[in-house]
Predict the structure.
Amino acid sequence: MVRGELEINSPFSINFTIMISTKNIISSYEDVPSEWIFEYYLNLSEKLVGQDVKMYSVFKTEKTPSMYVYFTVSNNSYKFKDFSSGNQGGPVNLVMALFSIDFFSATSMIINDYERFIKDNRYALNVEYKVQDKYKVVDYEMRHWTNLDKDYWMKYKIGSKLLEYYNVTPLSFFSMEKTEPDGSISSVKISLNNIYGYFRRNGSLYKIYMPKNTDKKFIKVENYIQGSDQLVSVKSNLIITASLKDLMAFRMLNIPDFQAIAPDSENSMINESAIDKLKEKFDKIIVLFDNDVAGKESSEKYKKRYGFDYVTLDMSKDLSDSVKDYGIDAVRDKLKQML
């Protein structure tokens, strides 16, 4: 409360107290709890107290949830990443993307909406975050190749030698564990046909691929630019594909003077320091992502951020499907003209 006195020049004096409430005055958007911004603008049914939330994208219609709201210990606040649209960042980035407004407009909206909210509602400002552990791969078992594996990979003209070269190995199962808030351990063991481990040259597992699992095809274990172990030190051109499968399909095309890599996913940007090193090694870098809206938007982001040209193969959804549907020769001929 602000207390003061006002004296008026008149035949008589009036002394009174001005009571100004500072309860609902927010001086900066940084005074607004990040979890409230996500709860309010995403209309979440649960209060964010350290847990991660997976949901359907609020930016695009999708069949499988691909948007994550997650807690970052380093910043002690919430962020989001939407794999469907590529939007990501902190709470202000969310509001900017939701309403297509600039930074100033977004921060003003957040302050005004929060002031109106707390005027009629109680909100706990000092949240004790209980950060929840996430499932991590703790065990796996390799197995021999079978005819089921052959049937799957040969549709894309990818044979055992190429799979071995890129350290793809079939798995009989893998296990994951996480620590619950009460200290207990939750575990799950997954055993399916067509499970594949993606390994680095040093033997470390960086991803698990389950092509027959419609709910979740990939389990990321660690960060890695796919195909980087197989790059050779000769001056040539580089293709950035959307996936390791596309990368291997591209290699089957045998287009001279081109090598290939793939990020963790089409929506994951390769960081600037890695790009700078690639620019030193290659004469030209071209992006080749999926032939859909998400692929084209991701290609545009690489062009805007790094200045890379991109090509869109207008055959099937992606490069490996194009090889499956049209054959190596047809894809090679078309892609060589585009490159």
Notes: The two ends are 69 Å apart (CA to CA).
